Amino acid sequence: MRIGVVVVAAGRGTRAGGPLPKQWQEIAGKRIANWSCEQFSNRGDIADIVLVVHPNDIDFAKNIQGIKPVHGGATRDVSVRNGLEALNPEITHVLIHDVARCTTPPSVIEGVISALEHAAGAAPALAVSDALWTGADGKVSGTQDRSALFRAQTPQGFAMPAILAAHRAHKGGADDDVEVACAAGLDVTITEGDERNLKITTPADFARAAAILEQNMDIRLGNGFDVHAFEDGDHVILCGVQIPHTKALKGHSDADVGMHAVTDAIYGALADGDIGQHFPPSDPQWTGAASEIFLRHAVDLARDHGFQISNIDCTLICEYPKVGPHAAKMKVTMAQLMDLDANRVSIKATTSEQLGFTGREEGIAALATATLVKA
User: Fold this and answer.
1) What is the mean pLDDT of residues 111-125?
2) Which of 48, 139, 141, 263 is the most buried (most CB within 10 A)?
3) Cα torsion for 358, 359, 360, 365, to the nearest 10°?
4) Is 260 left (phi over 0), alpha (psi -120 to 50) or beta?
5) Best CA proximity match to 266, nearest among 301, 230, 229
6) Per residue in 130-170, pLDDT tens?
7) Where do runs of H (alpha helix) occur along 93-230?
8) Helix locations, the chain, DSSP H
9) Band of pLDDT at residue 312, cut at 50, 70 and 90
10) How confident is the model at residue 375 (pLDDT cuts 50, 70, 90)?
């Protein structure tokens, strides 16, 4: 099987409240849409992922790795069809997932994929266990047999040609893709759902989802410290920004002390050595190298291990040059190199009150902290 995924995120989600549609609000340090997409992008058996978004939300989607953003339609079934049409033509099976389900356990996804090996459709569900009533005017008007009732969940999986044909033939209006499939005569196998696979609908659901996500998170902190002495020159490079100065920083590479500290903080969080181990100063190929090479390597290594960088905090310690006028540009530069929002990068400076080597203006020191998170 070549499996594709369509994550449906074109709705407005007004019942959830908040300043933005629910899929773009944050839970446990990350947007709901990011959590939902990463449930699939972090797997090795997914070949293509489409995120269907409202046209006004396309810029939000650009910050999500490993997905193709596609404009949605006026109704859910139209949005799904747009997503299906945008998948790679080599896809043989597709999982269709509601973006509001950002806490889906891997076992639920695996159950659907396993069922698709011998079924045209498969979807997770939970048997209804509560007594069911009908009501009118605030009073119970009758009871309902629950023995054959299930609470539907996503992802709902299908053979790609069959569900695409079903959507193309559908006349419009459907609560989910199982309804579209059944209207086309497809058999859908019920797989095991999970109570943790909740759908964020109301404000109270945010806290429930956060508790599930935080329970399963691997959070790492790393520290980095670096020092470079001054030598003759006319500028220094700090956090990727060239600053005019009466001296330069001495080092085997470009001596960007701030970027080196951040890089070592990421390596530290991974418990994977430091710059000197990954890029030995005895190796001439790194002479004068741009420090962004080291930083990008650390960032890529973190992602290869399944970690997302949550935030970076870097303090530059020096009397001169003055960092304040350049701090905003440093934040943006570092954020771009790490593919982060700038509000997740802190660059600040302090002096050592004319004490020690920094106080004597013999060099610059930097201290950094990195937080890595794996769901």
Assistant:
1) 97
2) 263
3) 0
4) alpha
5) 301
6) 999 999 999 999 999 999 999 999 999 999 999 999 999 99
7) 106-115, 160-169, 177-183, 203-215
8) 32-41, 58-61, 76-86, 106-115, 160-169, 177-183, 203-215, 257-269, 275-278, 292-304, 327-338, 356-359
9) very high
10) low
